[in-house]
Beta-phosphoglucomutase
Amino acid sequence: MQDFGDIKGWCFDLHGVITDSWIYHAMAWQETAEILGVTWTDDIQEQLKGRDRMDSLEYILQVGGIQDQYTLSEKQAIAARKNKRYLKYLQKMNPSDVLPGINELLADLQADGYQMIIASASQNAPLEIEKLGLTKYFTKVVDVTQLAHNKPAPDVFLKAAEMLELDVSECVGIDDGLVGVQSINAANMVSIGVGDQQILHEADIVFPSTTDLTIANVRQAFK
Ligand code: BG6
């Protein structure tokens, strides 16, 4: 792993790292799965973390063994309805939905002159950053609609480094999902997982919660 002193950019996943609105995705997907006749499980919920909209739907259909029963336009319509449900939950989002410790971390990063960017699989990321009151930290958000592949492919983190005008070796990526950690690793960035060490075992560094995510702790973990 490189030296912490080389790091200039921090590339953040959104759901589960900056805000817990990920649970709204899970709720909207659960409703969708039940309408499709697919039994919802904790494993499906975990597996959906970080997957983009269509990939999440494909995963649910596959678990139900019904992936061949829908045309592409039917799948797009199902995904659009799920997003409508999600946006309904999102109406209530406000700055109090920022996860513990994150406001402090972002203020410290800005004060120390680090660059920050959102590298999320979500098309709703710019809207959420605005609702969370975090536009002062995140002037840059990767537009996933412009990428060939979403997580676990490296595209979103590669694009994040490019938008920060940094080399991947000068960035850290932070994600709470396994596919997100795999995406960071595939981009050859130092990966920081937030959550369960066993699930996120592929990450270079894992912190159990966002309150542990401080510059001092990351510096220490690099040693
Ligand atoms: C990811 C979430 O950040 O965004 C997934 O972890 C979600 O659960 C994905 O499906 C896509 O979000 P959106 O807002 O583009 O439907």
User: Anything to note?
Assistant: The radius of gyration is 17 Å. Strands lie at 9-12, 115-118, 171-175, 190-194, 205-207. Residues 14-15, 22, 25, 48-53, 56, 83, 120-124, 177 surround 6-O-phosphono-beta-D-glucopyranose (CB under 6 Å). The chain is about 45% helix and 10% strand.
